[in-house]
């Protein structure tokens, strides 16, 4: 489903977090990307919806070489990939409902469809009661869950999560990870970047450890 | 998704952009009203020029019949000779009819129209000359009119000659000048409208930077991101056109009475007209188009600079 071959990424300014990385994630798999801070976990994830382009090597998503994807097709690639961010990336002047609805709105879905799906997604992450609230009134863990609801509201085949348990306590972290396991169980290919080693070890899925810009 | 669902989806996306852009405008309503008012004033000025020129032309329309010549006789001419002279003028080729205005008649007319009781009573004698108003045949070539004028001047007892044709030529030149000035004003103020919108939209895009970034992150197309800003431009333009139409109607009502009085002094029943429904709709449409153009420029220039970081 996701294949990286000989991928190098060098940022302008000289940082070179990835240096010849080979990664293959099967369809329907749940994989953790681990590694120290600055190892390039976020960079790897950002290559997949083409938020970042590799300096060398190939990135293939569902068989398609992203280097050959025309610019105007990029939005449609991103629509098939749900992604959550460490800093949540929510719109602070919109309610939870409107934040979660955004991926459906950009597709021009009918109102009734939007309401049904957004309510289902918010229910899934346990925030249905707060759908009229604004993100600032929520805790960090709750904001992360809004991000997850937004990522899964279109039922994308791929789900990427960048440090979803960032600075949450262990109980909340486990809850969030179990949420991802549930999505994975219905067939969503899931890639989670995290440095919460004890939790990841406890969950027991495949791990890809990044070090020196390669997969160990 | 079936093909038949596509136009529906497209309509939904447009409706969303149209409504969300209105929502954005409403949230900063004071700034929005001020921008729309600035656009309205900028549109009202050239529109006022157009309406003024239209009125001028329609007011002068009735005067554009056959050219006339006012033939002034020497002041020393005996009154007994007037009919004879008038008859000789009538006999000329290219003259359709004549009317004699004796110095006494001229004085009476003058007293009536000026309203001044009798300034000329101070003078010993009537200083006004006798005038023969000669109506020229329609369709005379300019050269033929010139030759006729020469012959009139050559007649005995003719002191001077004024052709209304001079006046018409001057008038045509003034109207041409007015039309050019109108075009110039329209061009400059149309440009102003585009610049105002360009700047307003630039700020608007800057204020929505985060929203644009996030929309790109989750797969919003450029068209989706662009659309609300283009609608914002159109709303501003339409509102500006509406305001301009209102200002124009007020301005026309404001000058209508004095203008009518002025026209009646020239013996005309003319009363100035406003832009009318078609004119107002054209104004609003022009506003919308200019709004779209300004927004398009701003969006093209500033949206591409915002990519997900
Ligand atoms: N946009 C960027 N420009 C320059 N350097 C960057 C950029 N993003 C990340 N980096 C650098 O690349 C390295 C890897 O970053 P990142 O992928 O965020 O690692 P991780 O997520 O594993 O902590 C870091 O040294 C970081 O400073
Ligand atoms: Mg990171």
Descriptive account of the structure:
The complex is a heterodimer of chains A (216) and B (309). Chain A is α/β, with parallel strands linked by helices. Chain A is built from seven helices and ten strands. Chain A has a domain at 90-155. Chain A is globular, with a radius of gyration of 17 Å. Chain B has two domains: 10-62 and 170-305, no CATH class; 67-137, 2-Layer Sandwich (Alpha-Beta Plaits), CATH 3.30.70. Chain B starts with 5 loop residues before the first helix and ends in a 7-residue tail after the last helix. The mean pLDDT of chain B is 85. Chain A binds chain B through residues 49, 51, 72, 75-79, 83, 85, 89-91, 102-103, 105-110, 150, and chain B through 8-10, 12-13, 16, 210-211, 213-222, 224, 308. Residues 41-42, 162-163 of chain A line the site of magnesium ion.
Question: Low-confidence parts of chain A lasting 5 or more residues at pLDDT below 50?
Answer: none
- Provide the spatial order of strands within the biggest beta sheet of chain A: 6-7-8-3-9-10
Order of strands across the main sheet of chain B: 2-3-1-4
Could you tell me the strand content of chain A as a percent range?
15-25%
The helical percent of chain A reads 25-40%
**Average predicted confidence as pLDDT of chain A:** 94
Report the biggest beta sheet of chain B as strand number plus sense, adding barrel if it closes.
Answer: 4 strands, antiparallel
Sheet/helix structural class of chain A? alpha/beta
Number of DSSP helices of chain A? 7
The small-molecule ligands in this entry are:
adenosine-5'-diphosphate, magnesium ion
Radius of gyration of chain A: 17 Å
* Average of the residue pLDDT scores of chain B: 85
State the helical fraction of chain B. Answer: 55-70%
Return the string of H and E elements of chain A. Answer: EEEHEEHEHHHEHEHEE
């Amino acid at each position: 489903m996701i294949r990286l071959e000989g991928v190098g990424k060098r940022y302008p300014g000289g940082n070179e977090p990835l240096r010849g990385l080979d990664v293959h994630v099967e369809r329907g798999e749940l994989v953790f990307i681990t590694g120290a801070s600055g190892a390039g976990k976020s960079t790897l994830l950002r290559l997949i919806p083409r938020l970042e382009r590799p300096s060398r090597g190939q990135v293939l998503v569902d068989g398609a070489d992203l280097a050959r994807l025309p610019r105007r097709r990029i939005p449609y690639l991103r629509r098939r990939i749900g992604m959550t961010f460490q800093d949540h990336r929510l719109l602070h002047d919109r309610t939870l409902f409107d934040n979660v609805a955004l991926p459906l709105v950009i597709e021009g879905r009918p109102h009734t469809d939007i309401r049904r799906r957004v309510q289902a997604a918010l229910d899934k992450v346990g925030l249905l009661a707060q759908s009229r609230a604004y993100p600032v009134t929520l805790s960090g863990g709750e904001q992360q869950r809004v991000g997850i609801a937004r990522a899964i509201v279109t039922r994308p085949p791929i789900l990427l999560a960048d440090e979803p348990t960032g600075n949450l306590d262990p109980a909340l972290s486990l809850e969030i990870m179990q949420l991802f396991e549930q999505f994975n169980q219905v067939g969503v290919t899931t890639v989670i970047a995290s440095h919460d080693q004890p939790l990841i070890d406890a969950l027991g899925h495949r791990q890809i450890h990044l070090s020196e810009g390669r997969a160990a | 998704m079936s093909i038949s669902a596509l136009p529906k989806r497209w309509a939904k996306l447009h409706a969303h952009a149209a409504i969300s852009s209105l929502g954005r405008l409403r949230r900063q309503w004071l700034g929005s009203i001020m921008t729309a008012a600035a656009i309205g004033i900028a549109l009202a000025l050239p529109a006022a020029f157009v309406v003024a020129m239209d009125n001028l032309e329609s007011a002068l329309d009735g005067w554009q019949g056959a050219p006339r010549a006012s033939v002034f006789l020497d002041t020393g001419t005996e009154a007994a000779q007037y009919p004879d002279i008038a008859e000789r003028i009538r006999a000329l080729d290219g003259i359709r009819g004549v009317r004699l205005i004796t110095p006494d008649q001229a004085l009476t007319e003058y007293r009536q129209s000026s309203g001044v009781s009798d300034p000329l009573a101070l003078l010993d004698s009537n200083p006004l000359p006798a005038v023969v108003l000669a109506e020229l045949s329609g369709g005379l070539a300019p050269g033929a009119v010139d030759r006729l004028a020469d012959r009139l001047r050559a007649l005995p007892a003719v002191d001077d000659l004024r052709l209304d044709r001079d006046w018409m030529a001057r008038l045509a030149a003034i109207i041409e000048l007015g039309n050019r000035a109108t075009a110039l004003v329209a061009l400059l103020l149309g440009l102003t409208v585009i610049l105002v919108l360009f700047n307003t939209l630039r700020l608007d895009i800057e204020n929505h930077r985060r929203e644009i970034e996030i929309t790109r992150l989750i797969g919003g197309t450029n068209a989706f991101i662009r659309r609300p800003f283009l609608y914002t431009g159109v709303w501003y333009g339409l509102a500006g056109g509406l305001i301009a139409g209102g200002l124009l109607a007020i301005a026309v009502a404001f000058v209508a009475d004095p203008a009518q009085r002025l026209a009646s002094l020239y013996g005309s029943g003319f009363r100035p007209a406003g832009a009318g429904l078609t004119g107002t709709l054209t104004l609003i449409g022009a506003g919308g188009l200019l709004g779209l153009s300004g927004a398009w420029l701003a969006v093209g220039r500033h949206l591409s600079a915002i990519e997900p970081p």
